[in-house]
Design brief:
The protein has about 220 residues and is of the alpha/beta class. The chain has one domain: SGNH hydrolase (Rossmann fold), CATH 3.40.50.1110.
Length: about 220
């Protein structure tokens, strides 16, 4: 069992909240699992997985052992407007990390909400992530389903501060502890060092280049 862990986080506003799930996650890793976390948080609010892909492409080194990718809520519009590009972006993030950091552990927490109009898109997005879990050595964490199963109906409905964020800090503490349990369990076994399989989505973004529009 490791006693320290270097983690890169790439996500949206849920991953930058000062008293959000990441603080609870780091505390739980230390207090409940005896692992000190060194976190490189590259998240920026109000962004999509397209930002995540560009961030990974611009990184000189991928040296951390574990990566958390959190864009579910922010990607609803992206996925609805261009499903092929959305799915290809998610898959390319995974592929680039695995190709540049052998044995990297990748975790993707699936957060909730928006509204009734996003229910079907959300379901489709979640199914896609679980599909990727059958292809790649990643772990998808069904956060919203966990809360639904753990809380009473009125408690679950009160778990959100708005249609994109969980309520601080009671709910985010539960989420942080849940993710810490998933991570700790994964650390018990050997890392999966495998060759990157053939991609399953239609648009190959693994070798995409970042273009600075100011130079055009």
């Amino acid at each position: 069992m490791v006693d320290s862990l270097a983690i890169t986080v790439i996500g949206g506003s849920n991953s930058v909240m000062r008293k959000g799930y990441l603080k609870a996650f780091a505390n739980a890793m230390r207090d409940a699992h005896g692992v000190d976390v060194k976190m490189n948080n590259l998240s920026v609010g109000a962004n999509t997985s397209a930002f995540g892909l560009s961030t990974i492409l611009e990184m000189d080194d991928l040296t951390d052992e574990l990566y958390i990718i959190e864009f579910g809520i922010n990607d609803y519009v992206f996925a609805h407007r261009n499903w092929n590009l959305y799915t290809s972006t998610i898959e390319s993030m995974i592929r680039i990390i695995l190709s540049r950091k052998a044995g990297a552990r990748i975790f993707i927490p699936l957060f909730g909400r928006r509204g009734h109009e996003t229910v079907e898109t959300k379901k489709k997005m979640n199914e896609f992530h679980f599909h990727l879990e059958t292809i790649y050595p990643i772990k998808v964490i069904p956060v919203d389903q966990y809360l639904l199963n753990s809380l009473k109906e009125d408690e679950f409905n009160a778990a959100y501060s708005d249609n994109a964020h969980y309520r601080l800090h009671l709910v985010t503490s539960l989420i942080g502890q849940m993710i810490a349990n998933f991570v700790s369990n994964s650390l018990q076994g050997p890392r999966d060092i495998v060759s990157v399989p053939v991609r399953s989505t239609p648009v190959d973004l693994d070798g995409a280049k970042i273009c600075d529009l100011r130079s055009l």
